[in-house]
Write a structure and sequence with these properties.
Largest sheet: 2 strands, antiparallel
Structural class: mainly alpha
Strand content: under 5%
Number of helices: 10
Radius of gyration: 17 Å
Oligomer: single chain
């Protein structure tokens, strides 16, 4: 591997972990566009370049998601009864989402990713927060919701917080518990997404060395190596930095990165 790629993956891990801790967002919105550009630059197969970016991002999220889950669990903020009931749907939806992604073209995945990130950016810029309207649904309702959250998360390689936090707040869960519970939900999403992308890319010919399915492991190791530590750094600074203003800056960054991703794929 070229030295500049090692530096790029390490730097990406540092940025992703810091932003996850500071703003409480998953790293897929940053990782997928950057990895797509790096993979295109390395002449990875064009028809699988976004699939590889999604699978690699999912795998890189696993250790960070586990660390976040444990941190929130130690604070006693995770609603484990909700996690237990929503996880079957999360696992099914995420796993199924990777199968759908494997049948979609690189261009289709890039367009869907860009559109979803535009929605996320708008939500962050406007500071939209759902108004509580109901209680947390039962097993069937949570399973169905989990399947939807998991499916979309698999297609954009996120931990699901963008969807699960607003849903839980809509169900009268306070913001602290919603974020903590969402962090716990993020781990099965990342795990099921990683397994799904590995299996779906298992028989694909022409993938670059050091890949297992649609997961490029050198990038995973280097990104996770740094992000695991910078997540706590971001979390520690969350109370001293202007997070509301930084979210608007991040919203613009998401749009620019998505535009860059579309350019990388279609160019």
């Amino acid at each position: 591997m070229e030295w500049y790629l090692v530096v790029a993956f390490l730097a990406l891990g540092g940025v992703v972990g810091f932003l996850a801790g500071l703003l409480g967002i998953g790293g897929g919105g940053v990782m997928v566009p950057v990895l797509t550009a790096l993979f295109v630059g390395q002449a990875f197969p064009t028809e699988q370049v976004v699939h590889l970016a999604l699978g690699t991002s999912m795998a890189a999220i696993v250790p960070t998601a586990l660390s976040s889950l444990w941190a929130h669990h130690r604070k006693g903020a995770v609603l484990w009864n909700v996690v237990q009931r929503i996880t079957p749907g999360i696992l099914f939806g995420t796993f199924a989402g990777t199968f759908l992604a494997s049948y979609l073209s690189t261009n289709s995945l890039a367009i869907f990713f860009a559109c979803f990130m535009a929605y996320v950016a708008l939500q962050m810029w406007l500071g939209i927060k759902p108004t509580p309207h109901r209680d947390v649904p039962g097993m069937v309702g949570l399973s169905a919701t989990g399947a939807g959250i998991g499916g979309i998360s698999a297609l954009v390689a996120i931990g699901g917080g963008t969807l699960s936090v607003p849903f839980l707040m809509w169900c009268n869960v306070n913001i602290r518990q919603a974020i903590a519970t969402s962090s716990a939900i993020g781990f099965p999403i990342a795990l099921a997404g990683t397994v799904g992308y590995v299996l779906n890319g298992w028989q694909v010919a022409g993938l670059p060395p050091y890949t297992l399915g649609f997961v490029y492991w050198p990038a995973v190791v280097l990104i996770a190596l740094v992000s695991f530590f910078t997540t706590s750094l971001g979390a520690n600074l969350a109370h001293s930095l202007p997070v509301a203003a930084l979210k608007k800056v991040f919203a613009v960054l998401l749009v620019l990165l998505s535009a860059k991703m579309l350019h990388s794929v279609f160019a």
